[in-house]
Structure formats: C-alpha cells, structure tokens
Amino acid sequence: MTTRLVKRPQISPQKSSKDPLTRLRENTRKPLSPVPFAQALTVLLSEQKRVNRSRLQRVRGAWAIAVDETQGVHTDAAKKAEVVSVSKTGSVKVVVGNPGLAHELGVVYRGALLAKMRELLTGKDSISDLSVQCRSRRK
Question: Second label for 23, Cα 20 to 30 Å away, from 3, 53, 79, 133?
Fold first, then answer.
C-alpha cells in the first residue's frame, strides 16, 4: 500500500447538503497540508527497497533454474555463485569464488544462461547483460 505524501481533508457525504449549489460551495478545496521532506523521502526509499529486493529475488531464482537446465554446466560449483546485483538497465552481476568457473560461466555458457534467464523472466524483468566476476581476495 502506498502512503500519501499530501493529506487532503475528508468531506463526509452524509453531512453535505441536498442543495447542489450549496454542495458545490462546500466542496471548494482547502489548501493541502504539506508533509515534511524527510517523511516523504523515507516513504520513497522504503518503496524502492521493497521493489529492488523482490526483483533481486526473482533474478536469483531464475539464475538457479537456468544453471540447472543448461547442459554442460557443473551445477554443484555453479550453485555456489551468488547473484549480487541487478542494475536498472538489466545488467546482472554474478560473483563466484573460482576464476576458472568465472570464465566458464561468463564466457563459455554466457549466451545459454542469458537466453534461459530471459525466457524465465519474460514479462516481469528484462535482462540485458550478464557479467560473472571472481571474488577478490583481501589481504
């Protein structure tokens, strides 16, 4: 449910008069009461987080199914891959722990995985690109 950013006064239909001219005069809009900017920003950011989280969950589910259904992919190793982010343009970023697996998923099977994910997410989210990176080691 979305939260209104501007509060409007409520006019009860039971209390309005029967005369249309008087009713018209009563229904003149009163000035809107403003809402503090911080409150509006909080509402906007919470809505965006909810939308982004569900999109990321859908892409993670599609990734798991695409890895299972793509022929030739070592599924046990690829299941350890983590979908980190999905950009607004539809670019999916996947992080793996092994450089060889990153090359295999990002170059060899990239087209097949991307096509399967697009097929699974038809109508919900659009996937434009798939990038697989190796997790960096911190010293």
Answer: 3
